[in-house]
Write a structure and sequence with these properties.
With 721 residues, the protein is an alpha/beta fold. The protein contains 20 helices and 27 strands. Strands 14, 18, 19, 20, 21, 23, 24, 25, 26 and 27 form a ten-stranded mixed beta sheet that branches.
Amino acid sequence: MATDAAPPPTTFGQDCFLNRELSWLEFNLRVLEEAENPENPLLERLKFLAIFSSNLDEFFMVRVAGVREQAFGESAPQDYAADGMRPLEQLERIAARTQELVARQYRCLRESIGPALAAEGFELLRYDGLSAAQREQVDQFFRERALPILTPMAVDPAHPSPRYHNRGLYLGVMLDHVAGGAAEALGPKRLFAVVQVPQVLPRIVKVDGFAPGRTSFVLLEDVVAARLPELFGGFSVKSWTAFRITRDSDLELLEQESDDMLRLIEERLKARQRGQAVRLEIASKADQSLARLIIEDEELHNGSAGRGGVAGSGYSEVYPIDGPLDLTALWELYKLPGNGRLKDGPFTPRTPRGLGRRGEDIFAAIARQDILLHHPYESFDPVVEFVTSAANDPRVLAIKQTLYRTSGDSPISRALITAAESGKHVTALVELKARFDEANNVSWARQLERAGVHVVFGFLDLKTHCKVSMVVRQEGNGLRRYVHLGTGNYNPTTALIYTDLGLFTADEAMAEDASALFNLLTGYSQGHDWQRLVVAPNDLHRRTIELIEEQTRRAEAGLPSRIFAKLNSLVDHRVIEALYTASRAGVPIDVVARGICCLRPGVKGLSETIRVRSVVDRFLEHSRIYVFGPDDDAQVFLASADWMPRNFFRRVEVMFPVLAPEPKERVLREIIPVYLADNVRARTLDPQGVFHLLRPAGGEPAVRCQVEFLDRRGAAETAAQ
């Protein structure tokens, strides 16, 4: 398919850009700051600690793995990043900053959250500190649940080192034969062995019933470690340590030939567990000889002192941990029943404006007016209803749907199955390459195919990331198309924790474009004259720069101008250069970037009119909003795409306009100003790449945007009645 031309080399100096990878680490610091913030409920702070860890896992599996390949791969180019760093320098800076942040994370757990949990009755016990009654309970759990699963694995010439699973938790053990024991003749006196801590069991083992009002638990690895002599009979345990390997887990599919993409994805999912090691987390007090065996076996870099170390470099892929490894396990504690007062209060999403009239079905409501949906503050149920109603409506002839990330029990996928089984023409574009959701999507693809849905997988070298659903309905003597477009996924679960925007419309030009988009996805059909939608990789990059340049020309002509961009990440250097040029012309520019931002704001002579802020709060900010022009002349767009090269050139994305007066006014008057007014959870970016938490100035009211959106009930509820 036709694409925008690849961007030429940057014409701005290296000091005009922030490093992408380091910028991401600063985003994860903002997540950690929410864990440190005593204003958050205690278990929400615990949740942010777990999110920090899961974020870091993905960062190493994908981003660090990619930079590592650039630095050490046999045919890897030694290109500079836009900010001037070579790959090895980036790795060194990433490692140093990560060590700092992880130390801060564990200090927060040890000195702040841990004591607060203890004060609330949460008690982490050590196995050797259990009472007799507690030990009996834990031992019963071990005998009945753990022992049948555990596999002790010796490592010697006759027993090769196991391939440690990606992110699996292991115990490494140094053993000696018991003098005169029967096992002494079986091998060398000293033996290295490993035991995988079972991932199918809860990491947190509750110890019940001994202290009213207290929640006591012990960690699974502590239970297993206490029984190592039993697992390795005839040996004495000299030392043991917990460790965890993170592996390169990006699915590389480009330029691979396959007649069956479904089978190719399944094969690559198996290979993911066997990728190159990129990080070792190990207990900080580990026996160094034991640690060295793991490091050398995995060929990890360990600074100038370790095998594989880079000459003249202190770069290390070994991360000593002072505390329990893998704090994603804290989710188990967060999800324990009860403890509601230690969490954010529950909320009920509102019915979106324009829906909910008595006796009016969803198609009549959309035919009457375009409808904007603001999740999670407004319910995702109408999106599910849109597809389920279509599946059961005898006047609906066809449904076309993109699926990028779905829930485990997806009501939308089930509705598509129902529609196909009732004889409707149903097409589903299932993106098998949705990172870390591949297995779920493979499963749904097979179920949809069995039900008679026409399942396609898009393009081998492009991810289909756009969020579009279309219903074709017989009305009178003709057909009418109804369309939903969104900034987020068709996933009711994440719709409760991600902020996103969606649009229902029956606009004929939008519907024609949606039909052309599905024809492109299913049959490579091209040549359509797009009326409303802006599609990547066809022309989204070019059109984005054109829209920025239009505001530059307005400012140069002395006319009012404005640019607003709310997105997840701002990375593309051509777009950043266009924003710098617009700033030099005097265009006021506001950027709300949740994650990465490679632009330096507020630099004299370069970006003086650009303000960058980030909001990290209860809900994950995920919506993309782009506004070009002052209020009276504003062009308002929503999109599935961030301003990143991958979105512009390696994905099928859609940016769509908000044209109807009421939804457009909502975006301009009710949504954007609240983000720009936040002075409680918003942070502003300085030219050096550091974010600073805002606080209300003297006499200024406190504004927390997500709370404001949650509390805006009156007008919406009145309109829905």
